[in-house]
UniProtKB/TrEMBL annotation:
Positions of transmembrane segments: 207-225, 273-297, 303-325, 383-406, 426-444
Pfam short name (any one): ABC_tran
Domain ABC transporter: from-to ranges: 482-718
Alphabetical UniProt keywords: ATP-binding, Cell membrane, Membrane, Nucleotide-binding, Transmembrane, Transmembrane helix, Transport
Protein source organism: Gallintestinimicrobium propionicum
Signal peptide: none
Residue stretches in coiled coil: none
Name of the protein described by the UniProt record: ABC transporter ATP-binding protein/permease
A cellular-component GO term for this protein: plasma membrane
Principal location class: membrane
Membrane topology label: Multi-pass membrane protein
Amino acid sequence: MFRLLSYLKQCKKSVLAIVLLLIVQAYCDLALPQYTSDIVDVGIQQGGITYAAPEWMREETWGSLQNLMTEGEKELTASCYEQAEDGTYERTTNKTADLEALNDTFRMPMVMLSAMDESAETALNDGADAAAPTKEQLQLLQALQNGSLSEEQLLSLRETITDQLGDMSDSLLNQKAILFVKEEYEALGKDPGSIQIAYLLKTGGKMLGFTLLMAVCAIAVSFLASRAAASIGKNLRGQVFGKVLSFSSGEMHQFSTASLITRSTNDIQQVQMVAVMLLRMISYAPILGIGGVLKVVGTKTGMAWIIGLAVAVIMAVVLILVSVAMPKFKLMQKLVDRMNLVSREILTGLSVIRAFSREKFEEKRFDEANQNLMKTQLFTNRVMTFMMPAMMLIMNCVTVMIVWFGAKGIDAGNLQVGDMMAFMTYTMQIVMSFLMITMVSVMLPRAGVAADRIEEILRTDSSIVDAKKTEDEKLTQCRGELRFEDVSFKYPGAEGDVLEHISFTAKPGQTTAVIGSTGCGKSTLIQLIPRFYDVTEGKITLDGVDIRNLSQHKLREVMGLVPQKGVLFSGTIASNIKLAGEDEISDETMKEAAQTAQATEFIDAKPEGYDSPVAQGGSNVSGGQKQRLAIARVIAKHPKVYLFDDSFSALDYKTDAALRKALHEQAADATVLIVAQRISTIMNAEQILVLEDGKIVGKGTHEELMKNCSAYQEIARSQLSESELKGGMAE
């Protein structure tokens, strides 16, 4: 989770903009329930009259209310009202704070004035009206109206009425005060219906405005989140790909090609998908949840414990499900690796599989990998399917509890219907915020595993690194003299050396050949020169400079390697030969390289010539053609050191001889190092090294080795005829 969050640092500005938009969206979302409550409580029940502070009052009503107020209340009302020409009093302020103060000021006088207008005898007999004062209270009110009661007596009377109303005093006082205002409007000739409709339209318009703003914010958040996640995915792919390019052969073997492909594609896709969720849903959930809690606290319904209980149950369910599924999520990515590996092997070796009629066996192997992945996915999916029903059950139970306890509050008179509806909506928003997190939590474990696998690549340092201070300037005029000085090498983790105490010098203008039995270390020796691996002991120098003190770029810039397995890239013949750089290699140089590599014959035979397409991996050319194109690619580069790792094995003897003759002329001033299996390929080399079990057991020309090297003689007997052997021995 924290690693996923660290990726978001790449898009700080977008994340900040998203958070601000989500705050605005949450504010709009949280404002709607209160407006719904206002429509029910004020718009419907109170006829659109919000406060017991009338906009207009008759002169006689004003005077009667003033007689029932304290001096402080009179000063407040006098500052907020002014008398019109027709004698009516009009309110001069619409500030919320003033309206709330006026509401508290007018409530009790309005209730008392309403009681005075009622028949005292009716007030005594009507027990249903709990707010109607007694006969004695009416006499006190009449005395107050006549100015015979002091302010202390008035306050005492109000306290008595409030105590008589009990816990329902606020609710009943508001209702009776609003009813008084409504009757006052009717007395002034105002239409109560138009007032109600105006309030409903105004409130509904505000809700529509908030809804539209919320929609705009949601669209903007989706756009920015998708863009940020795509940017994260792009950057991760670039970082992983760049890191893999820096890996030596040791790191490539450590991870395997199939695993690197999965990590570069599927794993990064998982992170990208969850990044969108993090920005759109998980970021929104706490903002909405905290805002909902604050709103619930403000409702003062006394049911906040229901939310606490719901959240605790939700967290318990999520923790249980995730703890069960997490081990399987970790296993799933390894099974995806296995699936990719099997698929890649089958598709790559399809011709071999068909040749040996192994289709059924490979189908079984693929089905086994497929079944293991499917079973793991089914397990995790089945575990997580419990989440949604559990969340819905919790939400429905919470709704029932709110209705149950809310109904009791309404019945007791300390809660209104609109308040209960608002509380229910806020509660659902809080629960939904946790539900959003739980929905994403299905993807988080797998994405977390994917992020760990990506970081494993990014944290892996290549075993081949450039020196802090390179000596590239010493190779400004590179001659290409290559020297092995007591070189030994063993693979990481291996017990024994693959090469032991190798010493020789490959000079410019000469061909140095390496021959030996299979597994004697010939290809390993070649791979040490461009630093695919570093020597364990000794050193390799180029023009007297230790290659470990050269930058890898400079070292490989002066070298040309044709690997044992020719590799071509999808494109054209021209793009493959010009792989070293189209700007650096002209068409003329390309054609000369192709001619030297004996490739012009089959290239010219193609209708499109050098523009002929090459399929992925060079699958539309033969093995010999592939080798010749790979050789032409190196020749076009004009390196100072040519490295051929058994690169002539697919050529017939005639083509092999012609190519070596042309190459000798082309690379007359360069160092040529050839690893070969056929003696005919290296007979004319100025220096031949014979390897056996990683050691040099023979060094010299063909003639010299035929005289004094038994290992070379044994190879020669297996490849050359008796006449060729006798000729070689005689010489």
